[in-house]
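Q: Could you fold this chain for me?
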Amino acid sequence: MALWIARRPGDIWFLLPAVLPVASFTPWTGWWLADESDLLVLATLGAAYLRWGWDVWSQPAAASRQLPYGVCWVYLVLPPLLVLGVWRGLDDARGAEPWAALLSDLWAQGFYGDYDLPGNTLRVAKSLAWGLLLMPALYRWGQGAALRLARGMVAGLVVVCTAVLWERCVYADGLDFNEPYRTSAWFWEMHVGGGAIDAYLALALPFAWWAAWVARRGWRWVAAAALLVVAIYAVLTTYSRGVYLSVSLALAALAVLLHRYRIVSPDRSVWHWRAIVCLVAILVVETLTVLLGGSFMSDRLARSGADLSQRMAHWQRGVALLRTPTQWLLGLGVGRLPAHYSTQTFAGALAGQVRWKHSADGSTQAWLAGPAGPDMRGEVALVQRVPLVSGGAYKVRLGVEVSGSARMALRLCERHLLYAFKCQTRLVHVPLSREARITGLELALQGPDLAPPRVLSGVRYGVLSVTVLGSDESVGLHAIELLDPYGQQVIKNPSFLLGERYWNIIADGNFLPWHMDNLFLELLIERGLVGLGFFMVLASGALAMTVRGMRRYSPLAPVIGVAMSAVFVLGSVVSFIEIPRVSIMLWLLLAVSPLVIDD
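A: Sure. Below is the predicted structure, expressed as structure tokens.
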């Protein structure tokens, strides 16, 4: 990747949107604070700036694009706001601790952590930091940027659609629309809920529609039409009412704009219009098949009124976190919403916690706590993704430390991310013994045979999860092994000798603490009126640039403008600023908007 960018630096515009949708292997690595998407951006930055330095040294008089004058203000405003937001977030997180202790904790945390810890400030802030670092390189090689970006978005959507088809066929049956299963593809950030795939699809679908609209007849048009059909299937199987609305409005608006500004297929034939009409008819039939061919979406639509009331109550609780004039002006601090919401609202109290304890001898323990109070909805589990084999029951071997009796649930389920299918389970009551540390506790899981020898279900992955069920209960794990029916141990890092590596958490049943479910309110709560105001100025300026591009008949200005508008409409019911991969892709669209005028 770095060699490619060093040789063809203008392809930054293509590679980032093409690879970012799958640039995360969190279920396998356990990484959280940073992941493969950060490695991708770092490699891109290193190669681009190295090439820039070589060009300046070897061809000092060579012409290149500079930072557009209309966006220079970004570097006067956003870096200070970013530093202020990070400082407020870390200052809020440290409480009464000295700064040295906070920095030591962050260093010890490494790539791992949790959403209510100080590291979440750095995790959320990095997308804006990456965007600011990328912009000079992006604009230096800005020739043809809009077309490269559009092709990159189409390539990324191809990869996401492939992941959607694999997920639906393997886990949910591709044509079963009764099963309460919502597609998540490769967006592992949704392990605590959220709208990562919703925001991505809102950004990407206009580019698929554009590809079908302008493709020549033959295999190119067939491929573009097939991509749009599968992409609409991905949208429909998210069962997200917000993305339904935003994508519908976006595609309708884009069709009008493409026609209005005479952006058509190069052949300009009658065949092209007939093909578009047939494609629209196929999409309508596909939509009706999913919506009317099963009960899940009809049940969700029937609950729309109640869900809206609950969401509005959620928003009110979130805004109520702002209690002082300074908080209203500057926010709570970047990444601090989960910590405040989970401790200051009863409905948002965490349904469990996982904390990592590093001892002086170098050993690591995972401390699992139950819900913050009785009758709390949902669970938080320590998990690891494992391969499955058929043949009987699995066994779990535990080494635990307890300070009192505790109830635990051990589950091994056929699972992609949030939704579990067949499971082998075991409920365990760990009593207080004379010795608080218990080793070699072996338990046989109970349930059906997993991964039967069929073509699709046989390739399902499994997820081992460990949950503490009771409130005010906690268990320290210092070892956990999973033995398959043939006695083979399949867990990676079973004794935590490598720290938190390969382990992750999954929330179930309660996703309120982690998201505001409104982009603009989340910006207000974490970054205040100042941060929200400058975001609105940036977004409005980018949209204005695309309007100017449309007036000059720039072929991609309508697509980029509609894609940004779609994600902003979706932002009224979904928050995604806390998801770095999606935020970077939005940043690319904002950055390319001044260039559509010239392309």
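A (continued): The two ends are 26 Å apart (CA to CA).
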